[in-house]
Amino acid sequence: MTRHAVMKKHVVTAILFLTSLISADGKNPVFEGWYADPEGVVFDDTYWIYPTWSDRFEKQTFMDCFSSPDLVNWTRHESIIDTTAVKWARKCMWAPAVVEKDKKYYLFFSANDVHEGETGGIGVAVSDSPAGPFRDHIGKPLINEIVNGAQPIDQYVFRDSDGSWYMYYGGWGHCNVVRLNDDFTALEPWEDGRIYREVTPEGYTEGPFMLKRDGRYYFMWSEGDWGSPDYNVAYAISDSPTGPFRRLGLIIKADPSVASAAGHHSVIQIPGEDEYYIIYHRRPLGHTHSDHRHTCIDRMIFNADGTIAPVKITHEGVTSRPLR
Ligand code: FUB
Q1: What is the CA(167)–ligand 1 centre distance, in A?
Q2: What is the pLDDT of residues 10-52, one digit of tens each?
Q3: Which residues contact 168 (CB under 8 A, 6 or more apart)?
């Protein structure tokens, strides 16, 4: 090989290396478009994000989702569910929560921004694929009523280590937890015969989330008004999935040099590792429109004493983290 050819080979290798470094870097937002309330989840070797389409209520008639092999490169899957597949839903399809059970995927959602006496609330849909299409599982809302003052929205479905399925939900400043039956067609009563247990912590507005680590239950929620700049996320730690949940402090909030209204989050744990990523929405600086919310990812770190270190929100996001 001539000296020129060797030089050329080195230059090409260097360019390929630099390109790989560039594509390994993430960015926030992680994908284009106004998407809020992102639920991050891992199915097999793939990351998924299920967000709300952030738009006028009447236009929120569908949901898209996104998949990624590495948290950096995302593929959009359009309209995985819409109001034509859910006869009772007209608008406000919000805050998807997706779980896998017995090789089927269940998407819990809320619809219609329901008020007393109206039809709507929390529904459940099912598909053979995490990318849909999802069809209505029971043909009616799973929760239509307003109990303990909680609007039936913003559900999060949590599977405990003993196999029990819980659903935390609620807007209007109140949070309930319910148990789900085995095929997700109905709510299961607690031992005392009640269906709903209120678990509202101090400061709670909406967007509950649960994570279990080292046998302890980390309950998280959004505070403030989602249309205002100071929307944020707080948490509590408990020995029980039903609390009590005593507020310990904030996990994520606005940073005047990066973005405002950082909230309605979820957390992805790398399977088998003590490594966590927070998926949340925020409003870009200079934007005041309440629907201008986009989806971001940053690292979430636990302190040695088990508390959560306040998350630094960034423009850079996270670097490539393949699951294989
Ligand atoms: O995106 C619609 C609503 O805004 C959600 O249900 C709330 O949590 C808030 O993020």
Answers
A1: 17
A2: 544 444 344 444 445 889 999 999 999 999 999 999 999 999 9
A3: 155, 156, 158, 175, 176, 177, 199, 208, 209, 210, 219
User: Counting atoms of ligand 1 from 1, which one is nearest the CA of 110?
Assistant: 6
For residue 196, give the H/E element and its range. Answer: none
pTM equals: 0.92
Report helix, strand or coil for 189.
Answer: coil
Cα separation, 174 vs 172, in Å, equals 6
Does the beta carbon of 52 sit less than 6 angstroms from any atom of ligand 1? yes
CB within 8 A of 10, min separation 6: which ones? none
Q: Could you say which DSSP state residue 78 is in?
A: E
Q: Which two tokens stand for residue 272?
A: 């088998």
Query: Residue 149, Cβ neighbours under 10 Å: how many?
Result: 14
Q: What share of the chain is helix, strand, coil (3-state, %, to 5)?
A: 10, 45, 50
**Ligand 1 center from residue 74 Cα (angstroms):** 23
CA distances in angstroms from 306 to 204, 276, 277, listed in the order given: 22, 13, 16
Burial of 231 (0-12, 13-18, 19+ CB in 10 A): buried
Question: What token pair was written down for 3?
Answer: 């000296």
The closest alpha carbon to 175, from 151, 195, 158, 192, belongs to 151
Q: What is the pLDDT of residues 134-193, one digit of tens each?
A: 999 999 999 999 999 999 999 999 999 999 999 999 999 999 999 999 999 999 999 999
pLDDT, tens only, 82-117: 999 999 999 999 999 999 999 999 999 999 999 999
Side chain identity at 10, as an amino acid letter?
H
Atom of ligand 1 minimally distant from the CA of 205: 8
Active site residue 206: yes
Q: Which two tokens stand for residue 74?
A: 């995302």
Q: How far is the CA of 293 from the centre of ligand 1 (A)?
A: 10
Question: Is any atom of ligand 1 closer than 6 Å to the C-beta of 226?
Answer: yes
Q: How confident is the model at residue 58 (pLDDT cuts 50, 70, 90)?
A: very high
